[in-house]
Specification:
The protein has 137 residues and is an alpha/beta fold. A 5-stranded mixed β-sheet has the order 3-2-1-4-5, sandwiched between helices.
């Protein structure tokens, strides 16, 4: 049993998956956005390949807890994904995950181009690790 997380974006979707013991999150990569149907197919295939029992999608919430246009887009994506996969799809507050990912990559002295390629994957990994840690409490 594994859990997959997605960092939903307009150009890319970052993907991470847990280990089988649900302790750690590993980044899988990114999906370049094409169409909703193709995106859902790719996600469903990855979920099947990795034996995923649950998918967690990062929900972009404003710092004050309110919802924005990005939040509405993510919720629409979650609704479509729920119909495309046979496992439960949940949302998880992703506030500051992109900032954390960027900060970690800057500390690792990564080039701007490399940071751009890895930001979504690392954000998905941070979302999943946060979710896994919350389950332990």
């Amino acid at each position: 049993m594994r859990i997959m997380s997605l960092d939903f974006g307009t150009k890319r979707i970052g993907v991470a998956v847990s280990d089988e013991l649900l302790i750690t999150a590993q980044g899988l990569g990114t999906i370049e956005r094409a169409s909703a149907d193709k995106d859902m197919e790719k996600i469903a295939l990855l979920a099947s390949e990795h034996g995923v029992s649950e998918i967690v999608v990062g929900l972009p919430v404003n710092m004050n807890g309110t919802h924005s246009q990005k939040t509405a887009e993510a919720l629409k994506f979650v609704e479509g994904l729920s119909k495309a996969v046979a496992v439960p799809v949940k949302t998880w507050d992703e506030r500051l995950t992109t900032v954390q990912a960027e900060r970690a990559m800057l500390q690792a002295d990564m080039s701007r181009a490399k940071r751009r390629r890895l930001a979504d994957k690392i954000a998905a990994q941070l979302i999943l690790q946060s979710y896994l840690d919350s389950r332990k409490r």
